[in-house]
TrEMBL record:
It comes from Maritimibacter alkaliphilus HTCC2654. Residues 446-475 are annotated as: Disordered. GO terms for biological process: aerobic electron transport chain. This is Putative quinol oxidase subunit i transmembrane protein. It holds the Pfam family Cyt_bd_oxida_I. Its main location: membrane. One of its GO terms (cellular component) is plasma membrane. InterPro entries: Cyt-d_ubiquinol_oxidase_su_1. Belongs to the cytochrome ubiquinol oxidase subunit 1 family. It comes from the Bacteria. GO terms for molecular function: electron transfer activity; heme binding; metal ion binding; oxidoreductase activity, acting on diphenols and related substances as donors, oxygen as acceptor. It is a multi-pass membrane protein. The chain crosses the membrane at residues 20-45, 57-80, 100-120, 127-148, 192-211, 227-245, 328-352, 364-385, 413-437.
């Protein structure tokens, strides 16, 4: 049955599936690591118990999410050799070093200090424990730095030459490779999205417990109120910054990948006297038109060119075999933008509630926050789909096509591994996610317990009990 499918399409689906699972965990842990660092610093500064309770509550969730992110990332990386060996051979001289730096400088930093952050508060002293927590937070950011640098180079390649004999990309300028034209915008936009993702998950958990305690007539803990308040401050402050960064990223994309923006906007035809902003429509690639289009005249030109009458080219200027799939890009972009403005709305609503003194007593705000808890995860997936599908039909934009990047594998081989990944991922990561949700369903206690030491002294292998001391030994 799998033999009737295209091997390249199956390889693309497999990579999209595994990277989508993986991306959810770093999108959460990047922001959560910084949140933990802030909580730990606030506890050391104020000695207010609620910050310590929140730290102990969320650090357990962080440990689980971090572990699942590591496991899913390892599986994903193997596909460069199995399904995309031609791409690895041609682009490896350029992207291999930054990916190695991500492991050596970022992942090792996170993993090295993670144990101290989890278990070292009462063993190494508050100063070193705070430093370890900060290093874990910095490591998550540094990891995002290197990975986004590699991915951005694939969109806006720079600092290289092409070997005429092997057709490999050869590095010429390391700094141009790392700081390629789209990298600063993508880094700022993605990391800010991670902070918003964490803020809305934390805010959703806090709102859930506010609603439950009110329904049961129970007193809400100071820690629950604090995490909801901090999350709403993040939403109110960071959401408008994220919209501004998204606009800057879009302008950069228009400069370097105009076909992607045309697909995002649904512009099949050029508009010499101002292009409309289409709010709704059904892309029709076969007929090269947007059916049932509903738009605002000339608004797209105002947003992209800051001029109502500025001309904008359409996909009619791009050869058919170089156009990205418009339908996926068009709708994923709208999902991302709609969620971004919904986040802004929650942030403004929380400011109004705070001004009225009802931040913790407005049930409709809390219901909306619970509903929006997964919005950051959905938005980052929609943004990733917009970015990556919009790059098609290339892996290295304008230089190496996706169809020429795949390994010479038959469809049944790729399809069989894809089915195995789907079954295993939903089983393993489904169980892990279920356990994280169970942890979130319990509110932070007034004296939240920390990890308990099960034995005195060094940790020993499971099932091995040290022999009792012989009083006659050494006689």
């Amino acid at each position: 049955m799998l033999g009737s499918f295209d091997a390249v399409l199956l390889a693309r689906i497999q990579f999209a599936f595994t990277v989508s699972f993986h991306f959810l965990f770093p999108a959460f842990t990047i922001g959560l690591a910084s949140f933990l660092a802030v909580l730990n610093a606030a506890w050391l500064w104020t000695k207010n118990r609620k910050y310590l309770d929140l730290f102990r509550y969320w650090v357990k969730i962080f440990a689980l999410a971090f572990a699942m992110g590591v496991v899913s990332g390892i599986v994903m990386s193997y596909q460069f050799g199995t399904n995309w060996s031609v791409f690895s051979d041609k682009a490896g001289p350029v992207i291999g070093a930054p990916m190695a730096y991500e492991v050596l400088s970022a992942f090792f930093l996170e993993a090295g200090f993670l144990g101290i952050m989890l278990f070292g508060r009462d063993r190494v002293g508050p100063g070193l424990h705070m430093a370890a927590t900060a290093m874990v937070a910095f490591g998550t950011f540094l990891s995002a730095f290197w990975i986004l640098s590699v991915n951005s180079w694939m969109h806006t390649p720079a600092g290289f030459s092409i070997d005429p004999e092997t057709q490999q990309f050869v590095p010429e300028d390391f700094w141009q490779i790392i700081f390629n034209p789209s990298f600063p915008y993508r880094l700022a936009h993605t990391v800010t999205a991670a902070y918003l993702t964490t803020a809305f998950i934390v805010g959703g958990v806090g709102a859930w417990h506010l609603l439950r305690r009110r329904r049961r007539g129970e007193k809400t803990s100071a820690a629950t109120k604090q995490m909801f308040s901090m999350a709403m401050w993040m939403a109110a402050i960071v959401a408008p910054i994220q919209i501004f960064l998204g606009d800057m990223h879009g302008l950069n994309t228009l400069e370097h990948q105009p076909a992607k923006v045309m697909a995002m906007e649904g512009h099949y035809e050029s508009h010499p006297e101002g292009a409309p902003l289409y709010l709704f429509g059904i892309p029709n690639d076969e007929e090269q038109r947007l059916d049932y289009a509903i738009g605002i005249p000339k608004l797209s030109s105002l947003i992209l060119k800051h001029d109502l009458n500025a001309p904008l080219d359409g996909l009619d200027t791009i050869p058919d075999d170089e156009q990205p799939p418009v339908g996926i890009v068009f709708w994923s972009f709208r999902i991302m933008v709609a969620l971004g403005f919904a986040m802004l709305g929650i942030g403004l609503w929380s400011l109004w509630a705070r001004w009225r003194g009802g931040l913790f007593t407005m049930p409709w705000l809390h219901r909306a926050a619970v509903l929006m808890a997964p919005s950051g995860l959905i938005a980052v997936l929609a943004g990733w789909i917009t970015t990556e599908v919009g790059r098609q039909p290339y892996t290295v934009y304008g230089l190496l096509r996706t169809v020429d990047s795949a390994a010479p594998l038959d469809a049944p081989a790729v399809g069989a591994s894809l089915v195995a990944f789907i079954v295993i991922y939903f089983t393993v990561f489904g169980a892990g996610t279920f356990y994280i949700l169970r942890l979130m369903s319990r509110p932070p206690a007034d004296h939240e317990p920390s990890y308990k030491t099960t034995v005195d002294g060094p940790t020993r292998a499971a099932g091995i009990t040290p022999a009792p001391e012989d009083p006659k030994a050494g006689e």
